[in-house]
Amino acid sequence: MISCVIHSRAARGRAPAPIRHRGLACLPLALASAFGGLALFQLPTLANAQEKAAATLGETVVTANRTPQPLSDLVGDVSIIDRQTIERSGATGVADVLARQPGIEITRNGGVGNTTSLYIRGAETRFTAVYLDGVRIDSQSTGGAGWEGIPLAQIDRIEVLRGPAAAVYGSDAIGGVIQLFTKRGEEGVSPYAGIGFGSHGLRKIEGGVSGKSGLFDYSFGVAHEESKGFNVQPADKRTPSKDGFTSPDRDGYRSTSGNLKLGFQITPDQRIDATLLQSNIEAGYDNAVSFRTRPPILFRNDVSNNTLRTAGLTWSAKWNDIYSTRVQVTDSQSVYKTQPSFYRTETNLRGYLFQNEFRFGPHLVTATLERREDALENAPTTSAKLLSQDRSQNALALGYGFVQGPHSLQLHVRRDKDSEFGGKTTGSAAYGFAILPSLRFTASAGTAFRVPTLYQRFSEYGVATLRPEDSRNVELGLNYAKDGTTAGIVVYRNRVRNMIDFVGTATGCASSFGCYTNVKRATLQGATLSASQRIGDVTLRASFDVQDPKDAETGNLLARRAKRHGTLGADWRVAGWTLGAEVQASSQRYDDSANKVKLGGYTLLNLSASTQITRDLNLVARIDNVGDKDYQYARLYANGGRSAYLGLKWTPQ
User: Fold this and answer.
1) What is the reported pTM?
2) Beta bridge partners of 573
3) Quick count: other Cβ atoms within 10 Å of Cβ 300?
């Protein structure tokens, strides 16, 4: 029997063969039950209570309805992550910051820079719509954003919407939407510079300047970081390394990124914004193929290169107190390639948006025209025929919002017409009612879809007759906020049909190895709970997810998703310092859809400290995985163990 391990290169376009192999065992879950008790005792929050507690009533978000809206008026399940939270996290990847949020799990094939997946409420990574400064990011090979290629150093703010939003965003938003924002210039001139050092030879340096003068504002930033890394595929404890089951090299990475944002206030009611971002990350990995013959495993020390470029131009105009418009043109390019084992895939996305808003007292009506153009070029080898395909989607979306007294109502409907699949209509309805000034009930329902990637349809493993994946979601929530205490719960059920998977045989399949086909139905159901409590100089926070993301046909748990995961943390302000402790925990998962290859649960303790050394100089220190726990996101791929980080940032006041 043959057993294969297909590394990140396969995950970027080659057919994903079933993984059957041996690897390290993980430690069992230790604190999940404790999280559950704490969460239920405090009746945690609908929209990530600790983030909501920190937000001011006047703060606005754009992700829920694609238009600025006060956080207090939202019906959706939204979290906000600001720059201070990002810097204190000491994280090197966007996914690592998001993994500490309710309802989110990640997997990664090794260290930073290697293939990374993100799951919102158990939904596939391709079921999350991702935008950077309004520019859509996606892959037309595997589907979903390449999280390993998004530079955290350039991100100033993150908004997370959990739950389907296709009626607002179109294809992709089955599990949720994540918006990433770079910094915007404010009055005056604000330069900054920072350095950081950490375990595995990690070194960071960053710098930039932002400001505003008259009608013009700007922000510019560059960053570089590199790490010697660690061996992402150590020897299986049951198999001596002399048999060739390990590649003992260190798999490091090198990342360089930069962004530019310009704004010009043409008149008090008209504004133009332009954004540019480029990032390149080069990461080592062990490309492995495993056979139960001699020799059992062959390793090649390959290097992957991930380049992301985004650009956007927006004109916003408020014509009077009732009517305003927004016109936007965006472009993104994602290129993934490997050497010396050659593979290259390139996705180009172009978007055009014309949004109209009409405000009548407590009523908001939106009408949006949108066009999306997707293109893929995929070269699996230097000699294979280049795959080059493109498609387009045109859409009309209508929305209605009403906020008055204790009532909040949001209605959306959208019609997408794909150049190949024809028309698809999605809709959503959400209602919120303030039972008391501090207690609010919400309910929502919505439909969503995602069209197959161009690779899934037209590659050697593709089937041209694939149908779009679609879903129906319902959820209920209860939220409490008063005097430094926040708590809430959201319960959801999302049923996905026509899920695309890779199988050994399929109708219309030209490859003897297998093809993609619509073979699955999935049920994603569960509850997200979270809470925060401020006691003097101490802030406590907790979140706990109980979920059952399963294959509706077999009843098996979907691969690499846990039934329980959560965080428990505390921040203490004392003598000019902010001291933090955080526990992250997850129950066991399975590495395969057959639920035969188990990944053990884990519990991690992280510690942090930050202070303002001088008026202009801030220090951040962090130790992650204090207990040096041995755990895995994916079979055969190790994590870095205990790690430390120390960073200094100069920001003149």
Assistant:
1) 0.89
2) 578
3) 14
